[in-house]
Write a structure and sequence with these properties.
Number of strands of chain A: 10
Radius of gyration of chain B: 21 Å
Shape of chain A: globular
CATH superfamily of the largest domain in chain B: Butyryl-CoA Dehydrogenase, subunit A, domain 3
CATH architecture of the largest domain in chain A: Up-down Bundle
Oligomer: heterodimer
Helix content of chain A: 40-55%
Strand content of chain A: 15-25%
Shape of chain B: globular
Largest sheet of chain B: 4 strands, mixed
Number of helices of chain B: 11
Order of helices and strands of chain A: HHHHHEEEEEEEEHHEEHHHH
CATH topology of the largest domain in chain A: Butyryl-CoA Dehydrogenase, subunit A, domain 3
Chain lengths: ~400, ~375
């Protein structure tokens, strides 16, 4: 216990000394976060500095082993680091699908060479990754994907297309599901490949969403050659890797519902609907907001409890479906309340006052949370079958 | 602190589950109901609780108790919720013990807590006066008369009010209904002249009573805590009770849910198990999530009562608010998914619905706690 308390004190002091003041404000949307990559678009010097300092300690991914560039911290130390970062309002220094999705899959299924090649670059934010899963004909039914990889000696030849590839146009590498055995049953002939997005034959086309933003792309592969050394796990066994990675993706998306915002919803609403004796003048809205808050606190504690249960081996392997389902539905509810609280101010789409319609765009973006990474309905299917053991039709 | 039970707490849970499953299953509640038992609980079973140390679970060791915390009391409450067992555990071991242990003089603690540990005293908190929980609206008066007070007024829904030996009565010594200042707690002998108790059996076959106080004489020595400044002690005892009831609702809600899931697997219609239907699968999966999320809040509330008792108000409201709603959803879905058989008295599932309705109302329903949380967060 003493060691942990010392670690807490040292960590607090280090963060206090090294986290620039600009990095102690909440991240305002995805475009305000630091994504790293070959051609990083830093929003400020502070953002670059914060990434460099944290990466040097391996604290962009504190729980990964030191040999792969991570911080080598225990679960308890990692929890303390996160608590102290929260206490000082420190932002995450790096937002990365390499950290939240590919890394855990590589640690479990990657070869030693693959881990040494890719993990340290993820820690330092040098390579930005995207995920090639969904296809035009394979959404919730992901395993029916058709992108082909043909055996060409020591390389694979890739043809096909992906859709909803998050930031494919900004990514350096892709982790991609491809069909390597078209004659096998649909879950069997799938493999998990890594390749460079600068490879000849790769092209991307951003998709404009209802928010007016384009975080997702269509991605096309025309005769793309990929070295066989880039296969992760066994040939035709990519579905196992894919499912494992999805549980991490679900944790990440579910966690988005608990992003920290300086002002509470109640205070935001107070500015537009007014207050009466210190209470929101709109009593129906007040009741909805406090009911939401109760659920949000309980959900945050559930994420914490699931982490604590994992530590002692009590967490159900499918519990990420609970977090994904509940967290995203909660976030959609929150954004509806943000819009109600904002009233007509929140409807402005352009201009400085609304910061180019940030609230309205964030509200619209939130609708995708319960679709991406497996819809809410898919999560409920998983919970019903794997946790509740209800019979299959 | 990790949001999981430690080894000792897990052992307590397993022991309690084993004991109650064997000695106080739902048939125990039915037997008390069907013979219209005058006490409304089994004194023999309470004696077993006393022997296992449960009556003094929260009583400090120096007064002979187990000296355990609210997490442990919550573990027992949750198991009582699974079996719907009526007992004075909530009134005596949680509410009254909390108030006395936190506000009593050394003499009061020695006198009352040791009797509670020994099973010689059933004690309860007499607070509510209206059909909805509004402790600050207390109107019962306590007028100073020399070295004593004269209590006058009426209390409603006093848990175990007709069998308690000791009443911790909340009365107004100053101010007006609505003020949190001016309230005082009194340790009142239930057999004192001027007290009338009317047993009001509730829908769930648990104990409650209406009490009237007419010129009840209480010595100033029997003031619990400080005169006019009882609010903080009252809120503390109520928070303990709220978290305990929330734990009970987790137990009752989960038990109703697991019986329902078992039924979905075995009940056949249209030639297949009804649990194969996605319409029911999704509702069951959603309910599972609600119950799990509630469990996190309830455990955190109990842990917070142990680690920083005076700052537990907000998380207790989160826990009690959620527990009421998710347990209500659980029992409503349970009856609906059981279909016609769920509506019969012979089948147990309806008993869970009745208990949860009472638990939802006790010490503030979900709306009360949503309002309280909004106030605490200043909006």
């Amino acid at each position: 216990m003493d060691n942990l308390e010392t670690f807490r004190k040292d960590t607090h002091a280090w963060l206090e000394a090294n986290c620039p003041p600009e990095m102690r404000r909440p991240v305002q949307g995805e475009e305000d976060a630091c994504w790293g990559g070959r051609h990083p678009a830093f929003q400020s010097d502070a953002q670059r500095l914060w990434l460099e300092r944290m990466a040097a300690k391996g604290w962009t991914v504190p729980e990964w082993p030191r040999e792969y560039g991570g911080g080598g911290l225990s679960r308890d130390e990692t929890k303390i680091l996160r608590q102290e970062m929260r206490a000082l309002n420190c932002r995450a220094p790096l937002t990365s699908f390499g950290i939240s999705m590919l890394g855990p899959a590589l640690l479990k299924y990657g070869s030693e060479e693959q881990k040494r090649e890719h993990l340290p670059k993820i820690v330092r934010g040098e390579i930005r990754w995207c995920q090639g899963y969904s296809e035009p004909g394979a959404g919730s039914d992901l395993a029916s994907l058709q992108t082909r990889a043909e055996d060409k000696g020591d390389q694979y030849l890739i043809n096909g297309s992906k859709i909803w590839t998050t930031y494919a146009d900004k990514a350096d590498w892709i982790f991609c599901l491809v069909r390597t055995d078209p004659s096998a049953s649909k879950h069997e002939g799938i493999s998990f490949l890594l390749f460079d997005m600068e490879s000849p034959g790769v092209s991307t086309k951003p998709i404009v969403l209802i928010s007016g933003l384009s975080p997702f792309c269509e991605t096309f592969f025309d005769d793309v050659l990929v070295p066989k050394a880039n296969l992760v796990g066994k040939l035709n066994k990519g579905w196992d890797v894919a499912k494992y990675l999805l549980t991490h993706e679900r944790d990440m998306i579910g966690g988005m519902g608990s992003t920290s915002e300086n002002r509470s919803l109640g205070q935001i609403a107070g500015e537009t609907v007014g207050t009466d004796n210190g209470m929101l003048a709109d009593t129906a809205l007040r009741a909805q907001i406090s009911a939401y808050e109760i659920d949000a606190v309980a959900f945050r504690l559930t994420m914490e409890r699931v982490g604590d249960m994992a530590k002692v081996g009590q967490a159900h392997p499918a519990v990420s479906s609970l977090l994904k389902y509940y967290g995203t539905e909660l976030n959609k509810r929150r954004m509806e309340l943000v819009m109600s609280a904002g009233g007509t101010d929140a409807l402005e789409w352009e201009g400085e006052r609304s910061r180019e319609g940030r609230t309205a765009r964030a509200w619209l973006r939130s609708k995708g949370n319960s679709i991406e990474g497996g819809t809410s309905e898919i999560q409920l299917n998983i919970i019903a079958k794997r946790i509740l053991n209800l019979p299959s039709a | 602190m990790a949001l999981v039970l430690n080894e000792e707490q897990t052992m307590l849970r397993d022991n309690a589950r084993g004991f109650l499953g064997k000695n106080a299953p739902i048939a125990h509640l039915r037997a008390l109901r069907d013979k219209r038992d005058a006490d409304g609980f089994s004194r023999a079973l309470w004696k077993d609780f006393v022997e296992m140390g449960w009556a003094g679970i929260l009583v400090p060791q120096e007064y002979g108790g187990l000296g355990l915390g609210y997490v442990e009391a919550g573990v027992v409450m949750e198991e009582l919720g699974r079996t719907l067992t009526p007992s004075p555990f909530l009134s005596t071991a949680v509410l009254a013990t909390t108030a006395i242990a936190r506000a009593g003089t050394d003499q009061q603690k020695k006198h009352y807590l040791s009797q509670i540990v020994a099973g010689d005293l059933i004690a309860t908190l007499a607070v509510d006066e209206t059909a909805k929980h509004h402790p600050e609206k207390t109107a019962m008066t306590a007028a100073r008369a020399g070295n004593s007070f004269k209590l006058g007024g009426a209390k409603t829904f006093v848990i175990d009010g007709h069998v308690a030996n000791l009443l911790i009565a909340v009365a107004r010594t100053a101010g007006k209904p609505g003020d949190t200042d001016g309230l005082t707690l009194f340790l009142v002998d239930a057999s004192a002249r001027g007290i009338r108790a009317e047993r009001t059996p509730t829908v769930d076959t648990h104990n409650a009573a209406r009490l009237t106080f007419q010129d009840v004489n209480v010595s100033a020595d029997n003031v619990l805590g400080r005169i006019d400044a009882g609010w903080e002690v009252l809120e503390g005892a109520l928070n303990a009770g709220r978290a305990a009831v929330a734990a009970e609702m987790v137990g009752a809600g989960e038990e109703a849910f697991s019986r329902t899931v078992a039924y979905l697997r075995e009940r056949k219609q249209f030639g297949r198990a009804i649990g194969e239907f996605q319409a029911l699968q999704h509702r069951a999966a959603h309910l599972y999530c609600e119950l799990e999320v509630t469990r996190s809040a309830v455990l955190k509330a109990l842990q917070t009562l142990d680690s920083s008792f005076d700052r537990a108000g907000a998380i207790v409201s989160v826990a009690k608010g959620r527990a009421g709603l998710s347990a209500t959803l659980a029992v409503n879905e349970a009856v609906q998914m059981h279909g016609g058989i769920g509506m019969t008295d012979e089948f147990d599932i309806g008993l869970f619905m009745k208990r949860v309705r009472v638990g939802q109302e006790l010490f503030g329903d979900a709306s009360f706690h949503a309002d309280r949380l909004a106030r605490l967060n200043r909006y």
